[in-house]
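ARCHIVE CARD
SHELF: 3
SLOT: left
DATA:
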Amino acid sequence: MVELEHTRELMKSMGLTTAAELLDARLEDASHRELTYLDFLGELLDTEHQERRRRSEETRIKLSRLPNRKTLEEFDFSFQPSIDPRKIKELSTLAFAARNENVVFLGPPGVGKTHLAVGLAMQALRNGMTVYFVTLPQFIADLRKASIQGRLERRWRVYLRPDILIVDEVGYMQLDRESAELLFRLICSRYETGSIILTSNKRFSEWGELMSDTVIATATLDRLLHHAHVINIRGETYRLKDRLKIGVQMVPPADIPALEKPAKE
């Protein structure tokens, strides 16, 4: 018993907390199964390794700031026939991230752009990579606040450090000169050094207007798209697909009677 407690304390001091907690149960199991010393040790260390991976993944998910934990397996490709599932499957190998390439999802609101971006992020997190999620309005507000507080350069590291940076909702707000320059700097800073997954409801031809400067927009797109996979999504809103399938109308029926015009005096 003294030897057992000594072994348990050694495991804890070495950071093998899961193995220490399971030592008694695994010893009893090994005795019943007549495992060799090597098999017993291998199974115990494998359990410790799996638990460390689980905790690491959970920590990275929390730090990623993802809005949800939707996976690619949950995406209904039959509802969005404009998307080639083979292309998404290819992206899910994460070879694009290994090559520091970008992924751009284009399409109107609600067609599944963010779901696919998050799904790729979850795949990356499962594989030990780091991810950070931010909407464009959040990114601009964050850096403007950091600039006022005199910590802009330090705050930039948050957006340059992860293996994959997701920039969501590009196109929902008109950018002034300062905001456009922040987005341009972000794209330049991660160019060929880290992957970006970007979602936008704007065609590339509209980015000049979006960024209030055609020159900055052109330079931004030049770097963003140099090594990029562009997925253009067309179709009905993905968020309301279940309601549409059961025939729930999204607009008032056409036979609503018009309001009577007031009688002329």
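SLOT: right
DATA:
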Amino acid sequence: MSLLEGKIALVTGAGIGIGRGIALRLASEGADVVINYRSSESQALETAERIREMGRRALTIRADVSKVREIRGMVQEVRDRWGGVDILVNNSAVDPRENFLDVTEEAWDQVIDTNLKGTFFCAQACAADMIKKGGGKIINISSVHGMTTMPRYAAYAASKGGINALTRQLALDLASHNIQVNAIAPGATEVEKFAKADPEHDKDVIGEQIPMGRIGYPDDVAKVVAFYASSGADFVTGQVVTVDGGSSTRFFLKG
């Protein structure tokens, strides 16, 4: 029997990048996967097709997780069609890099509403179904920027630090319902931005600064998500684990 056989997983921001890697890994472990996206419809549909090729069910739902009404509509659709969520992965995020003095109220709200508020209200909406089912797993995708960061990440770092604190709080609040809540903090990971001709995002340059000699890949994160989602983590809750090749162990990582 597969690790996650019979489980329903909802992954936000699953059309591209780390979210796509997580969705594919959970499907490979036997889960049926709901692929949430906001604007990357073609990529979400491609991810769904790859999951179906594995013999698992896939459902794509467009929803902006910065809006509570859309979150609740998405979770209701999963409830109506598949009976509710067993595993929630809060992955959707935005990360604009701006100098601290240039951050506008609009930019701040976009980051906090998507990254932190979205995580809170997705967890709240899905926890109701998990309680009825007798338990569940919530995995929040944080970042090393929530613990040690670089210039021009003020709003993003604040949102990810908030996710770390929220993870511990939800673990406490939901422990009596047999819902485990954990977070993963990736470091530099090869996603679409590394394909740009941008020296700041050159994966080889960044990889040279990481103790393990390379940047991460989405499946490096996804494999840890699969563990947290499994019965192997039934007594693990309130934890934030870094998946960064050791970069956060260093005093300074040039950004």
